[in-house]
Amino acid sequence: MAPAPGHPIDVHTWSTPNGWKIPIMLEECGLPYRVVPVNIGKGEQMAPDFLSLSPNNKIPAIVDPDGPEGAPITIFESGAILQYLGRKTGCLYPKDERARVAVDEWLFWQVAGFGPMLGQTHHFRIYAEEKIPYAIDRFTKEAERLYGVLDKGLSAQDHVAGAYSIADIAILTWAKYHEKQGIDLGGLPHVRRWLDRVLERPAVQRGFAAI
Predict the structure, then answer these.
(1) Which residues are 36's β-sheet partners?
(2) What are the φ/ψ torsions at residue 174 (nearest 5 degrees)?
(3) Closest CA to 18 of 46, 38, 4
(4) Residue-wise over 176-203: b if at least 16 C-beta within 10 A, else e?
(5) N or C: fewer beta carbons within 10 Å in the chain?
(6) Secondary structure of residue 61 in the 3-state scheme
(7) Are 210 and 23 in contact (CB under 8 A)?
(8) End-to-end CA distance of the chain, in Å?
(9) How far from the centroid of its chain's Cα atoms is residue 98's Cα?
(10) Is the peptide bond preceding residue 60 cis, with omega within 30 degrees of 0?
């Protein structure tokens, strides 16, 4: 898709699985954007200026100067941003209702389960100062279950909702770090096939490199 005219979208984000979703989507859609780094390691997500954009103090958030009816719009939460950009451009978010429902199912699966559970897995396996066996076991097992769901969903199709979509973008930024989650893709051939393919997309690579 050719780049859309207009002013760049400001993307307030950082180099995390959630933070990479939006630059990847913007690269896929060809929209102009500008990354505004929010260093969560230094607590910049708690600054008043960022809280005015994202009241839950989580990245990412965007400011689109060319929003609905030509007026600026601010959006927080990665799933809401992906849906908005899909509606705005017609890119990777189908208009057909049945196809859109399929995309939304997997998008909501990611934002409600896959992302939060893998985030907890990251935390207790890698970042927690105290290694708590119960927590590590609990979240690693849930990560294994979720990857199994994903593998089954990909067993009969190339992408999670049929065609490549915002749902794939939401999931791939987390799945890229499966090793940190204690997940071996050797027993998940459909996830491996899908992940290798989507990570080869030039727009995905540019999106990861943008932050």
Answers:
(1) 12
(2) -85, -45
(3) 38
(4) bebeebbbebeebebbbebbeebeebeb
(5) N
(6) strand
(7) yes
(8) 22
(9) 22
(10) yes
| Amino acid at site 183 | I
Nearest to 110 by CA among 78, 86, 70, 88: 78
How much is the pTM? 0.95
Structure tokens at 2: 């050719």
Instruction: Read off the pLDDT of residues 101-127 as tens digits, 9 standing for 90 and up.
Output: 999 999 999 999 999 999 999 999 999
User: pLDDT tens digits, residue range 173-182?
Assistant: 999 999 999 9
Express the helix, strand and coil content of the chain in percent, nearest 5 each.
60, 10, 30
Token pair listed for 130 = 């105290």
> Residue 83: phi, psi to the nearest 5?
-65, -45
Tokens representing 110 are 């990611």
* Nearest partner of 104 among 180, 48, 162, judged by Cα: 162
